[in-house]
Specification:
With about 375 residues, the protein is of the alpha/beta class. About 45% of the residues lie in helices and about 15% in strands. The two termini are about 25 Å apart.
């Protein structure tokens, strides 16, 4: 892991979490299998890590190295992490889980491509005695633990920021709603949170569920919205993440708008942060990937050893088939040009030099990023 990621992991671990794995004993969730595994498993573990896609920069750039590094630290370098990315293909991910089961991993961390379609694979892992940590997306099936962000709060933060940006158009203005993929349960939570703020205040000129979260699909949807509504009739755009915001803004520019309407985002991707610096994008949602990744690693190692999650999980959630899943939800922050310094720079996600390259330097200077 590079210096930046080490900095981020250490900073977040020190400032946002005080999680210890000191507690031990058998996990009730794992029953007799956990009792058995706790007797024979030390740090020499095999952990499977399956992430859903590579369209969003976070999974490869942040989540994977953070999780792998933390597992290494927790096991004194003795654990082996086997990694695969499903590249947004649910069938591929099912095959990857089958391979992990065949290879007899001691625990699985899974960011589901399709939260419902993965249920049968989770059941197979459970039958094989392999505990599963649902990472970032609440998968269906008998999962043993879950960590993510407060996803409704993400939507509320986006909606609140959009109303702020709309100003006097916040009452009765027309927006385009660009939601994420319907296969991702988080997308529904983002939408729910945003609409809890926006309903009754703005008009939804057009609304889309964006296939596979792809920026090119968001771009095509935005072009259709502009054609249907007229470029002068769009007061703002709710975009569920930064990648889509990029596609949306490209479409808005191509339409020749004299001034871009405010556009939201999520994930604090570098390109998104740079658009915020220039004013092309109004906001993003900063989510502490180090905090989430550290928790996922701790959960996986504890479950692999047959230990309790009582000292890690701070709450519980239910999916359609499982009640009381031990859960950690990490807080989120609304990111605008006013707090770039106190969020992504302070936590070591990016340096000023990385954000303020070339054409962005003048805009950075104007908002005090030097």
């Amino acid at each position: 892991m590079n210096t930046r990621m080490r900095r981020a992991a250490v900073a977040v671990a020190a400032t946002t979490m005080a999680i210890s794995l000191a507690a031990c004993g058998s996990a009730k969730e794992s029953g007799d299998q956990a009792e058995k595994s706790s007797e024979k498993k030390g740090d020499d573990l095999k952990i499977g890590l399956l992430l859903p896609e590579n369209q969003t920069a976070r999974y490869e750039k942040f989540d994977r190295p953070i999780i792998e590094k933390k597992i290494d630290e927790l096991t004194g370098g003795k654990a082996k992490v086997t990694y695969n990315n499903a590249k947004q293909d649910a069938t591929t991910q099912a095959q990857q889980i089958d391979t992990m089961i065949t290879n007899k991993v001691d625990a699985l961390i899974v960011g589901a491509v399709d939260a419902k379609a993965i249920e049968n694979s989770i059941k197979k892992a459970k039958a094989a005695g392999i505990p599963v940590v649902a990472f970032d997306r609440l998968a269906e099936g008998p999962i043993d633990a879950y960590t993510s962000f407060d996803n409704e709060e993400v939507g509320r933060a986006q909606g609140t920021a959009l109303l702020e940006a709309l100003g006097d158009k916040a009452d009765g203005g027309t927006i385009v709603m660009m939601n994420g993929a319907i296969t991702d349960p988080n997308a529904a939570l983002f939408k729910k949170g945003a609409k809890s703020v926006l309903d009754g205040k703005v008009k939804y000129g057009k609304e889309y569920d964006t296939k596979e979260w792809k920026p090119e699909n968001a771009n095509a949807n935005m072009e259709a919205a502009i054609t249907a509504l007229g470029k002068d009739k769009i007061d703002g755009v709710y975009s569920a993440n930064d990648g889509m915001a990029g596609g949306i803004i490209t479409a808005l520019k191509a339409a020749g708008l004299p001034k871009l309407p405010p556009v939201t985002g999520q994930d604090a991707e570098l390109a998104g942060v740079q658009r915020i610096v220039t004013g092309e994008q109004f906001m993003s949602v900063y989510k502490s990937y180090p905090a989430e990744g550290i928790v996922a690693a701790e959960m996986a190692v504890a479950l692999a050893k047959g230990e309790s999650l009582d000292s890690i999980a701070t709450s519980k959630v239910d999916n359609a088939s499982q009640k009381g899943i031990p859960t950690v939800l990490v807080p989120v922050v609304s990111l605008t040009k006013d707090n770039i310094q106190d969020t992504v720079i302070k936590d070591g996600i990016y340096t000023i030099g990385e954000i303020c390259t070339g054409k962005y330097k003048t805009a950075c200077d104007k908002i005090g990023l030097k």
